[in-house]
Amino acid sequence: MKREHQAGLILLVEDNRSLSEVVGEYFENKGFGVDYAGDGMDGYRLAVQNSYDVIILDLNLPRMDGLQVCRLMHRHF
């Protein structure tokens, strides 16, 4: 699906693979584009490299927890 036809672009940062698949599939079926990250470091990297309409961020993540990611994003933006 091309960006201009998407309802929006979501970053989903979740280390539970089965949960991220269910949530991501739900939003994709609603017309959203979804990027995935399985840990806080990758989530932060994607967040600063791309423009997202929404970021869904788990708190308990490997490598960097969700609160740290939030703090860094707040400083960056």
Strand order of the largest sheet: 2-1-3
Q: What profile does the largest beta sheet have? A: 3 strands, parallel
Please write the string of helix (H) and strand (E) elements: EHEHEH
Q: What is the percentage of strand-forming residues?
A: 15-25%
Global outline: flat
The count of helical stretches stands at 3
Number of domains: 1
Class, according to the CATH hierarchy?
A: Alpha Beta
The average pLDDT score comes to 93
Tell me the radius of gyration. Answer: 12 Å
What does this structure look like?
- The protein is of the alpha/beta class and 77 residues long.
- It has one domain: 3-Layer(aba) Sandwich (Rossmann fold).
- Helix content is 44%, strand content 18%.
- It contains three helices and three strands.
- It has helices at 17-29, 40-49, 66-76, and strands at residues 9-13, 33-37, 54-57.
- Strand 1 (9-13), helix 1 (17-29) and strand 2 (33-37) form a beta-alpha-beta unit.
- Helix 2 (40-49) runs parallel beside helix 3 (66-76).
- The N and C termini lie far apart (28 Å).
- The model has no long low-confidence stretch (mean pLDDT 93).
